Amino acid sequence: MNKKTWLIFSGLAILISTYSIVQYLILDAHHAGFVRLKLTFTSTLNSFWYIMLYMHIVFSVVALVIGPFTLFSKFRERNINRHRMLGKIYMIGILFGGVSGLYLAFYATGGLAAQLGFGFLSIFWMITASLALAKIKHKKIYNHQKWMIRNYSLTFAAVTLRFWLILFTVLFGFENFNYSYAIISWLCWVPNLVVAEWLIQRKLQVTSTFVPKTLKS
């Protein structure tokens, strides 16, 4: 990740994280716009649901903000010990954020389609993190980096989700939120993963171009 890309991802991550902290932690989550809208489709939300929501917000924010620093090559090369420390914190964020996200997926607005969309997001989020961790433990640095790119594309769903929500609300209004959210539950992460895979393949092609033929053989 170059500096310009890092600034864009970091800026968006901090923006959405700040919004989430203010909306759900500093202010009362019970009166947050998303929760109030959800209550129009659900009669009540139990206390454990709110606990899992708080857990998901806190640990997902940690992963979202730390992620760009783990992917920024200059920071990684100049601060290898800090990179390792942030990587561990990032993995903890995904573990608790993923488990709580999986629980919340069962109660997702939008019916079965939304439940599956957010459920698979949480599952793939934890799986890609596990694979990234496994690769670095076996000193396979390049494979570790590829899985981290895939993983952060899923972490970044927290950002793309908000953009899709704004777009769908403007186009279709709140009265169709139930249907819109079912679609957004997939749109917020599947395109991200496709773009991440494209970037990985593009990087592979560029690397292959500059590798001497003697090394390729």
SSE topology:
Blueprint (H helix, E strand, L loop, with lengths): L2 H24 L6 H7 L7 H25 L1 H6 L1 H26 L5 H27 L3 H15 L1 H16 L4 H11 L2 H20 L3 H4 L1
Helix pairs in contact: 1-3, 3-5, 3-7, 5-6, 6-7, 6-9, 7-10, 8-9
Index terms:
mainly alpha; 11 helices; 217 residues; disordered C terminus; globular
- Rg, please? 19 Å
Helix content: over 70%
Q: Which quaternary structure do these chains form?
A: single chain
What is the number of helical segments per DSSP (H or I, 4+ residues)?
11
Major sheet size, sense and barrel closure: none
Strand segment count: 0
Instruction: Identify low-pLDDT runs.
Output: 208-217
List the secondary-structure elements in sequence, H or E. Answer: HHHHHHHHHHH
| Termini gap | 29 Å
How many structural domains does the protein architecture include? 1
Shape: globular
Overall structural class, as computed from helix and strand content, comes to mainly alpha
Strand content: under 5%
Mean pLDDT: 87
What does this structure look like?
The chain is mainly α and 217 residues long. The protein has one domain. It contains eleven helices and no strands. Helix 6 runs parallel beside helix 9. The radius of gyration is 19 Å and the shape is globular. The chain starts with a helix and ends with a helix. The C terminus is likely disordered.
